[in-house]
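Entry type: protein chain
Record version: 2
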Amino acid sequence: MYQAEFDGQGGYVRWTEAPGAQPARVYLHGLGSMSSVYHAHVAARPELAGRRSLFLDLPGHGISDRPENFGYTLEDHAGAVAVALDQAGVTGAELIAHSMGGAVALVLAHLRPDLVSRLVLTEANLDPFPPPTAGSSGITAFAEDEFVDKEFTRVLERVGPAWASTMRLTDPRALYRTAAGLRKGAEPMMRTILERLGVDRVYLQGERSGELPGREQLEAAGVDVVTVPDAGHNVMFDNPDAFVAAIARRS
């Protein structure tokens, strides 16, 4: 396990990694998740093996620290990832990012383009204020202290056992502030960043999630939008073959 101080006050972001060739692949998880749980099983596949792979847990999540005074905005998370990659000696990485982690990856690519050579985004948040069914909207329906003191355990019951297994390892206050930051978005907004980036960009949308809003505009901007059959939000679990193929085909 590796770690890097990200907040100047003794808070560490941590990751595990497998050695291999460059450019490195950096895996980023979604809200209330962990990178190794969602991505290690695909990184070990023969099509992807042999590449240096980092499984990084964002602040407040998994094995990383969860300082109470940290902001947990998208920019804050991107800054923590940048610190980790700088310490790891990583440049020009392929970012494999899911959901909220995809939003963080886009902000990172905007702020530190030297760190990113390619993006593979799985149902990444591109716009502010997602629909009420989204996890971030449900969490931020409450005041912060109310969520931390009362609602966190109820949310764990509602999200189901699979998501709850990693969400229960997330600090409740960090989860709330991350959800609030995700709803607010970034400046420029994530969709705008994605359209403007000059690197190779792949966006995976699960077939069961419905059509991706603004797909035509993204494709016109050079984004390779792939609808993955027999998959919902968690494409890497629902259809790992298609997920691996999307990562491997342009590497």
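Comment: Residues 74-88 form the longest helix (15 residues).
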